[in-house]
């Protein structure tokens, strides 16, 4: 498939990409190469190939959800660099004008 500079510029604009004027021709050639490869892939007979979502079979490694007792305040705050009144003390980041 042939692609021209106007099409490359249009797609770049849609993607909000800034393309240097000197690199448009090079991008045209690169996109044309990619599209030629896709056209070659479209010629492959895939009628007997089942659709897949991954190239290899994957299984999730889920574990059973088991209840555990929650941490106590002392244990949760054990490594806190600063604490007070049973809470984490953090720097103030919101300023009111």
Large-scale geometry: flat
Radius of gyration: 28 Å
Strand share of the residues? under 5%
Round the mean pLDDT to the nearest integer and report it.
89
Helix content: 25-40%
Seen as an oligomer or otherwise, the chain set is single chain
Number of strands: 2
Task: Break the fold down into its secondary structure elements and pairings.
Layout: H1 5-14, H2 24-42, H3 73-76, E1 83-84, E2 87-88
Antiparallel strand pairs: 1-2
Question: Can you characterise this structure?
Answer:
This protein has 97 residues and is mainly alpha-helical. Helices cover 34% and strands 4% of the residues. The protein has a domain at 5-42. It contains 3 helices and 2 strands. It has a two-stranded antiparallel ribbon with strand order 1-2. A hairpin with a 2-residue loop joins strand 1 (83-84) and strand 2. The longest helix has 19 residues, at 24-42. It is flat. The mean pLDDT is 89.
Provide a brief overview of the structure.
The protein has a domain at 5-42. Helix content is 34%, strand content 4%.
């Amino acid at each position: 498939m042939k692609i021209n500079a106007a099409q490359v510029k249009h797609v770049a604009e849609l993607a909000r990409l800034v393309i240097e004027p000197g690199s448009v021709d090079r991008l045209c050639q690169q996109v044309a190469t990619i599209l030629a490869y896709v056209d070659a892939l479209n010629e492959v007979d895939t009628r007997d190939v089942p659709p897949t979502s991954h190239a290899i079979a994957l299984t999730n490694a889920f574990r059973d959800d088991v209840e555990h007792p929650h941490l106590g305040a002392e244990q949760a705050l054990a490594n806190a660099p600063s604490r007070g009144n049973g809470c984490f003390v953090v720097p103030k980041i919101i300023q009111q004008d």
